Amino acid sequence: EVRLVESGGGLVEPGGSLRLSCAASGFAFGIYWMHWVRQAPGKGLEWVSTISPVDSTTDYADSVKGRFTISRDNVKNTLYLQMNTLKIEDTAVYYCATMRLPNEAQRGQGTQVSVSS
Question: Could you give the 3-state DSSP secondary structure of residue 37?
Answer without folding.
Answer: strand
